[in-house]
Amino acid sequence: MKKIYSRKNYYIGVDVGGTKIQASLVTEFGSVLANYRCETPRNGVAHSGSVHDTPVEITLNAIEESIRILLREQNRTLNEIAGIGIAVPGVVQQETGSVVVTPNMNLSGVELGRIMKDRFGVPVAIGNDCNLGTLGECWLGSGRNVSSCVGIFVGTGIGAGIVFDNHIFSGAGQAAGEIGHIISQIPCENWRNNIVITKHKRKTKSSKSNLPKLPRCGCGNYGCFETFASRTAMERFIREAVEHGAKSMIAELNGGTLDIIKSGAIAKALKANDKVVTPIVRYAAQVIGYACLTIRHLIDPEVIVLGGGVIEACQKFMMPIIDAVIANDQLPSVSGKRRILISSLGDNAVVLGAVALVRSINGSNPLRKTHRIIPKYPQLHFMAENVIHIADEPYTKDFFILADGTIQPRLKLPKKNIHSFRLKDIQTATSGGVDLIIFGSPSVGEITLSGKCHDYLFRRGIDYQILPLNEAVHLYNTVTVRRSAIWHFS
User: Fold this and answer.
1) CATH of the domain at 454
2) 485 beta partners
3) Is residue 444 part of a domain?
4) Residue 358 has what DSSP assignment?
5) What pLDDT, on a 0 to 100 scale, did the predictor assign at position 478?
């Protein structure tokens, strides 16, 4: 079913990173229509040199070109664009659109908002990538419909964002949310070593300094959270273990190298119960669990959303460990609906957050109930003999209705049990952010959701209903939340 959008209902979200730039065309209700990705220039040429050494103008031109190529490929013009949101990995002054510092890029001190507004002539908003990733999750992902949320993104480093009362909390110095640099181990000398004991005549040898040998973080400090639980930290621990003679298959799984160990290789090693990787990832999961506990004790948000490449790849192993740390909290509190969830939006979280930010400066913050726009969903009509009509067209074979209201055939059924659903079905149906997924079928009693599918929905705070076709049609037509559906005909 083709969608028709009016002028000025499109936005562009851009995620500018040290390795790639992603520009996305997004509707006002948050449907990502198209993405364009290119590599971040290094010395003007991809794959070579350093981002830091690349002239700023080359990076600015790459950002501009990614937007123009996206528009050209989608046959759109700037007259249809209501605003552009841009995310960068660093400290940003949102009010002015200026980049204060980008440690891993060359945009420090650049007035990015003003420059892009001059080049495109539309409203432009600039924000920190982790802040905007959290904002995106609060709009359409696992943090939707709550007033307080903290997002933690575990990848090469560890970043975070804080959203309170439907707005990003940036702090007095625009640097709030740098959870990766919270000190997890204190690099201080033990006080006992500095006390001279004269009460006992027995002489003891003076002890040496008890300063822990902690790795130095990229920020310059010692004992930072991300030096113990990020993918970079795991790499360091794995290399140290292997160098000391521990046997591991991780190099083989990672293309024969230990230089940059990919999250996917770590996940494969976990599945094989690798004797080096398994205890290291268990330790990282415990550290992340205690970080979540610290956040709860400090600001007690309704939802903590975990995302990033490490969580996405290793969630099956890590989440029960994180849950166990949280469950063992001995500090009493009033019971409430506090949850630890997994990111629903993946790579699109940041660009959707960028769009949410520019929508906010345009006066329509999508996190506020009064400004939320629900897609226009089709009206369904249940007919006799298990036929569903949509716009006078009969449907008698399995199909999806996606989060933005578009219809898509379900071409592949599970081989073992045709009345069950593959995880890929659930991912397809819920992509784009939904509160509810409806399963409609004349064979309700035979429908099963695997533990994997149930866990996927539970970990993202998505409700579901399994109903006979006629009841499912009625619910789909009358419910007022963002929704999707899978229609299964025997």
Assistant:
1) 3.40.1230.10
2) 401, 438
3) yes
4) H
5) 96
